[in-house]
Write a structure and sequence with these properties.
- The structure is a single chain.
- The chain has about 180 residues and is mostly helical.
- The protein has one domain.
- It is about 70% helix and about 0% strand.
- The longest helix has 26 residues.
Length: about 180
């Protein structure tokens, strides 16, 4: 079935698959448009009553959070001897593993939403992250250099990212200590 996303009447005519053109458009978007897309998609679906500025802020917060999560995962020694494709698969698996916790901590509507956001981050920027690691670059500034995180520009966003990361780290530490007992 071919749907022309340039004509809204096509979408209105086929209500059962009205989200398909949105999904297709999302796949074509560049990552710098995620916050705007997050804001637009939430408005168009009526999933939340947050104002657009707050939704845009949440999109940026999630970008920063997932970037930091992936950086902390790639720094792990287990990624040293993996091929790029194996490392990307492992990062996607990590996205699946943490999606429910991130959804709970961030207030996302579903773990699937968090998993999709993380998987997109892996798909679009995982290769750059692995390249930076293989070149011996300092990964602590990767998220700031690529403008995923904007420390100091929004204190509320910085606090929320820090809270999510510390809670996620605490739960991972608890899980690791219970595995060794």
């Amino acid at each position: 079935m071919i749907v022309d996303i340039s004509w809204p009447s096509t979408v209105r005519a086929n209500k059962a698959s009205s989200t398909w053109p949105v999904v297709q458009a999302v796949q074509a978007m560049r990552s710098w448009m995620w916050p705007w897309l997050f804001c637009w998609s939430t408005l168009s679906t009526g999933a939340t009553e947050l104002p657009p500025a707050k939704m845009l802020q949440m999109g940026r917060i999630m970008q920063c959070t997932f970037c930091q999560i992936l950086v902390s995962e790639v720094v792990d020694a287990a990624y040293r001897d993996l091929t790029d494709s194996a490392a990307l698969r492992k990062l996607n698996k990590h996205c699946s593993d943490i999606s429910s916790r991130i959804a709970t901590l961030s207030g996302a509507t579903s773990p699937k939403e968090s998993e999709d956001f993380c998987a997109r981050m892996v798909r679009e920027h995982g290769g750059d992250l692995l390249d930076a690691k293989s070149m011996g670059e300092d990964l602590t500034s990767f998220c700031v250099q690529d403008d995923f995180c904007r420390p100091g520009r929004d204190a509320e966003a910085d606090a929320l990212v820090e809270g999510i990361m510390s809670n996620l780290g605490h739960k991972e530490d608890c899980a690791a200590s219970s595995d060794t007992s």
